Amino acid sequence: MKNVSKLILTFVFGTMAFSFQAKAEDFPADIKPLMTKYTCFACHKVDARLVGPAYKDVAKKKYSVDKIVALIAKPQPSNWPGYPPMAPMNVPKEDAVKLAKYINSLK
Ligand code: HEC
């Protein structure tokens, strides 16, 4: 009996550890704190639609870094028909550039 519960515990914690890892992998370690701080992650995922488009789909638009920085501060909902409008996000330029470069690095 003892062995069985040990087995179950190992399984449960193993699964938990695995799902945490999968989540952390979504954004690289230097980008994740920014996505969290400015709440981007609440609406955007790397490769799936959430409230907003997947960052990979944004990358397909081939914007310049400056253009993405401008769009974060002043979104243009007409670029994304079928989505609700994104609220303008108040992100300091330095961090916005990091986010923009990361988005453009996605394939
Ligand atoms: C409340 C939800 C929400 C949050 C928070 C949010 N977004 Fe968005 N985002 C959207 C939606 C919806 C769209 C598509 C409609 C639009 O562009 O207005 C979008 C579009 C975009 C685009 C594409 C703009 C374009 O015109 O092609 C970029 C880039 C982007 N978001 C980056 C970010 C970043 C970076 C953050 C965090 C600083 C962020 N978003 C936070 C919902 C959100």
Q: What is the overall shape? A: elongated
The computed structural class is: mainly alpha
Strand content: under 5%
Give the second-level CATH assignment, the architecture. Answer: Orthogonal Bundle
Mean pLDDT: 86
Number of DSSP strands?
0
CATH secondary-structure class: Mainly Alpha
Through-space gap between termini:
50 Å
Q: Mind telling me the CATH superfamily name? A: Cytochrome c-like domain
Total individual domains: 1
Order of helices and strands: HHHHH
Low-confidence stretches: 18-24
The CATH topology is Cytochrome Bc1 Complex, Chain D, domain 2
Q: Which small molecules are bound?
A: heme C
Helicity, as a percent range: 40-55%
Main sheet summary:
none
Specify Rg, calculated over alpha carbons: 18 Å
Number of helices: 5
What does this structure look like?
- 52% of the residues lie in helices and 0% in strands.
- It is an all-alpha fold and 107 residues long.
- The protein has one domain: Cytochrome Bc1 Complex, Chain D, domain 2.
- About 7% of the residues have low confidence.
Feature tags:
107 residues, 5 helices, binds heme C, mainly alpha
Record the SSE blueprint.
Elements: H1 2-24, H2 32-37, H3 55-59, H4 65-73, H5 93-105
The chain binds heme C.
Short description:
This protein has 107 residues and is mostly helical. The chain has helices at 2-24, 32-37, 55-59, 65-73, 93-105.
